[in-house]
Write a structure and sequence with these properties.
single chain; alpha/beta; Rossmann fold; Helicase, Ruva Protein, domain 3; 4 domains; two-stranded antiparallel ribbon; 60% helix; 7% strand; elongated; disordered N terminus
């Protein structure tokens, strides 16, 4: 009660002071109006000054009354309890500030960078460079295409094994186009809190549109873009749905291009792969013998070495571009340890023993292993009548919406041809590529159970295998010729196949 009484008295005193000042000024003005002819001396001006000071002081006291009141209350040692309204206001302010801080914290991870990498800094991509240069031209001169009704591709999907340089290529596109580059990993969108992944996707696209023309690069998109099913989490599906919505939400002239990378295209949701999202797919493979030469030339540029570069190229079959970079770097470290300024082959061999290559990079083959793999790929090239490289890891899937039975059986033949060819030429089965066998089994299962085109899966597979044995046995010499071409050049072209 004492607290409330003091507060009321303080407010009342302030109010009385303001009223008194206003009355005094009014009286003084009235006096001047009535007796202006009798005013003499300096006392008149002192009075005017005093009244104006009093007036300003009253307004100041009124304006700062809360602070003054709190000062005198604290001076007396009186503590006031906040009202319910004050508590609500304070809580609202705290929540707003906290939310703003969290918003800033969540969006801080989205930052554009300027890439200083160009196509000159990336070797061994001649097969995809032309297509990517067209994308760069889209970004640099969109009006040239828009006036003809051509829209900028919404997305480009880079497909290939780890270490082939998918991220580096995306940065090179941004560097060539000289546009902001927004890098995000697919895993960064996967969040334990429902709605956070979708929120981050939305923020990413908002920032990219504000910086247009720009490139959004999503690495390992399979982390967020896996095929949806009833067993998947709501958060992952909500994030994927937001990504699909955002890719549909901007037009081809928005100046925002989405580039994504994956080494598991088979697990991606069909909605991501349909036209209008990732309109272009660029397939990258482990570097060929010519590509490795260009990559090593780039990495050894301006460095002294005293070994045959072609010998190193031949001995690094199966190395990705990242593996080659690591090899050269480790060799240089060994050179420095020797207190020398010239690389030799001992440095290369020492580096090889140090490097622990990943699963995809363990195909550092000896002569016998290389021959087995070459026979395997030669058999697939013969049956499919398509170009094939030594380290191609599969057959590109058919895009037929309504495949016939003969088309499905032909796909099974292509998947089984490698293991059958090796068995014929080496006179015993070899375990080379289990994924090809799995794909053949999946298609056979679809023929029997999904499309009801055959009665027994095992009988179907055995029948196809028997046909392959006959076909490949009759053309054994052609397969051996293709094998020699693959061993020599690490690939066989369409023209070479046609000339056999």
């Amino acid at each position: 009660m004492l607290q409330n009484s003091d507060k009321k008295n303080f407010d009342k005193n302030l109010k009385m002071m303001s009223i008194s000042a206003a009355i005094l000024i009014a009286l003084f003005v009235y006096t001047i109006y009535k007796s202006s002819s009798h005013i003499q001396g300096s006392s008149y001006y002192i009075g005017i000054g005093f009244l104006f000071i009093l007036l300003f002081a009253s307004f100041g006291l009124r304006f700062y009354r809360e602070r003054i009141k709190q000062y005198f209350i604290e001076k007396k040692g009186i503590k006031t309890a906040p009202s319910a309204f004050d508590m609500e206001v304070n809580n609202t302010k705290k929540e707003t500030i906290t939310a703003a801080k969290n918003e800033n914290h969540d969006s801080d991870y989205i930052q554009a960078v300027e890439s200083n990498i160009t196509f000159k800094d990336v070797a061994g991509i001649s097969c995809v460079k032309e297509e990517l240069e067209e994308v760069v031209d889209f970004l640099n001169s969109p009006k040239k295409y828009i006036k003809h009704g051509v829209k900028l591709p919404n997305g480009v999907l880079l497909v290939g094994p780890p270490g082939v340089g998918k991220t580096l290529i995306a940065r090179a596109v941004a560097g060539e186009a000289q546009v902001p580059f927004f890098y995000q990993s697919g895993a960064s969108f996967v969040h334990i809190y429902v709605g956070m992944g979708a929120k981050r996707v939305k923020e990413l696209f908002i920032k990219a549109k504000a910086s247009a023309p720009a490139i959004i690069f999503i690495d390992e998109i399979d982390a967020v873009g896996k095929a949806r099913s009833g067993s998947s989490s709501d958060e992952r599906e909500a994030t994927l749905n937001e990504l699909l919505t955002q890719m549909d939400g901007f037009e081809g002239d928005s100046g925002v291009l989405v580039i994504a990378a994956t080494n598991k295209i088979e697990v991606l949701d069909d909605a991501l792969l349909r036209p209008g999202r990732f309109d272009r797919r660029v397939f990258l493979t482990l570097p060929s013998i010519d590509d490795r030469r260009k990559i090593l030339d780039l990495y050894l540029k301006h460095k002294k070495y005293n070994f045959d570069l072609q010998e190193l190229v031949n001995e690094t079959a199966g190395f990705s571009s990242a593996a080659l970079s690591t090899l050269v770097n480790e060799a240089l470290l060994n050179m420095i340890k020797r207190d020398d300024n010239e690389l030799n082959f001992d440095d290369i061999n020492t580096a090889k023993t140090k490097i622990e290559f990943g699963k995809k990079e363990q195909k550092v083959l000896n002569i016998e292993q290389k021959e087995i793999l070459a026979i395997y790929q030669a058999s697939k090239a013969f049956v499919s009548n398509k170009p094939m490289a030594l380290f191609d890891e599969g057959i590109k899937k058919s895009d037929d919406i309504y495949p016939s039975k003969s088309q499905l059986i032909n796909s099974i033949k292509q998947y089984l041809s490698g293991c059958v060819g090796v068995e014929i030429i080496k006179n015993e089965p070899y375990a080379v590529n289990s994924e090809d066998l799995n794909q053949a089994s999946i298609i056979a299962d679809d023929i029997v159970n999904k499309y009801k085109m055959s009665k027994d899966k095992d009988d179907l597979l055995q029948s196809i295998k028997n046909d392959l044995i006959n076909e490949l046995s009759m053309n054994k010499n052609k397969i051996l010729k293709i094998k020699e071409l693959i061993i020599k050049n690490e690939e066989v072209t369409q023209d070479e196949l046609a000339g056999l």
